[in-house]
Amino acid sequence: MTTVSRETHARLERFADLLAQWNTKINLVSPRDVASLWPRHIEDSLQLAELIPAGATITDLGSGGGFPGLILAIATDNPVTLIESDQRKCAFLREAARICGAKVTVIPKRIEAAFPPPADIITARALAPLNKLLNWARPLLREDGVCLFLKGQKAPEELTEASRDWHMTSTILPSRTDGGGAIIKVSDFKRVV
Ligand SMILES: C[S@@+](CC[C@H](N)C(=O)[O-])C[C@H]1O[C@@H](n2cnc3c(N)ncnc32)[C@H](O)[C@@H]1O
Q: Where are the coiled-coil regions (predicted)?
């Protein structure tokens, strides 16, 4: 379990309450996950916080209900850009950021059409295979930036597949919350020509 301050815990509780309210109208998480928001979604996102340096700018791709981007904005107080194409989810993300006092910019567009300033860190969860994530991330990341992707059991296969198209420095870290899941950390990557 990731340890957070009492104040951060209270802000995350506010986020969880708001998500549960909004989830009755829009599908931010599966309805059966509302009762297990902390272990399944919040803790899963929080484990990235300790891999992110203080002050680093973060861009989160396909943020959905705010995992992991909004959770990281609350836990780290770093500036976070959330890219999400679903307008109703963007309305939730803006409202949750306001209520939880998170430094967030929401870009209500498809990733391919979003051009935020290059970030120090790119995150994503439950969005696309690694190869596609790297393709989206490259122009949105500083040259010396790092990608942190929350992945399921197929992380090793995705890394093998992506290695055919990308030169990269990569590590697979075991997820602390999802048995069999993993964090794929990628830096210094460029397309094989
Ligand atoms: C399966 S959900 C995962 C949401 C969140 N990351 C999580 O772990 O709960 C994928 C999200 O990515 C968004 N999405 C999918 N393709 C996208 C794209 N090309 N540009 C922006 N958002 C996209 C969807 O609208 C959806 O909210």
A: none
